[in-house]
Design a protein that fits this description.
3-stranded mixed beta sheet; 5 strands; two-stranded antiparallel ribbon
């Protein structure tokens, strides 16, 4: 009976030691993943920052070009440059927000905001998208929602950008809101 007890005790110690080793390995793995996530967030923030400088240079050059007389072809080219730099600037802002989201201190700050305000924020952005897409806004709501205006704007801008990039030029894009009980759905509809 004593030998059996010692054998069970050794077996329990062995199982406990294996569990402790497994737990330590798991903790090390989680720490490495957290370190990698932080490195990725830092890299993303650096890339966004570095892209801001050349975009700023292009914006300044376009502003300089706009001070002189332009023929119709130059005017269209300048409008395309302005639209593209506006889209790039918004994309860089979105990359910065994504980098912030990967950090531990990422926070969503929902506040009451009229749906029409959310749509107004993104409508101006949509006008600068490539492809000359007419934008139709179908607002089936006249309410305020509790949302993080910046984060929702980022999501809708991304959807509008995808719609413009993957739809044939000149085809319409629709931004629609509908109310479903206590919720409001924002949809981006395209021909892509």
């Amino acid at each position: 009976e004593g030998a059996g007890r010692r054998r069970r005790f050794r077996l329990l110690r062995q199982v406990a030691a294996e569990r402790a080793m497994s737990l330590a390995a798991e903790r090390g793995y989680v720490e490495r993943l957290q370190d990698l996530a932080q490195l990725r967030a830092d890299f993303t923030a650096i890339v966004a920052h570095e892209l801001g400088n050349p975009i700023g240079t292009v914006v300044q050059a376009a502003e300089l070009l706009a001070t002189g007389p332009l023929d119709p072809i130059q005017t269209r080219a300048l409008a395309a440059i302005n639209a593209s730099t506006a889209a790039l600037t918004a994309l860089v802002a979105d990359v910065r927000v994504a980098a912030d989201a990967e950090r531990d201190d990422f926070a969503v700050q929902p506040r009451p905001v009229p749906v029409r305000t959310l749509l107004g924020d993104t409508t101006a952005y949509a006008m600068a998208l490539p492809g000359n897409h007419p934008l139709a806004v179908e607002d089936g709501t006249d309410v305020a929602v509790r949302a993080d205006r910046m984060r929702i704007g980022q999501v809708v801008r991304n959807l509008l950008t995808n719609a413009a990039n993957y739809s044939p030029p000149g085809t319409p894009i629709t931004l629609r809101t509908t109310r479903h009980g206590r919720h409001v759905r924002i949809e981006v509809i395209d021909r892509g």
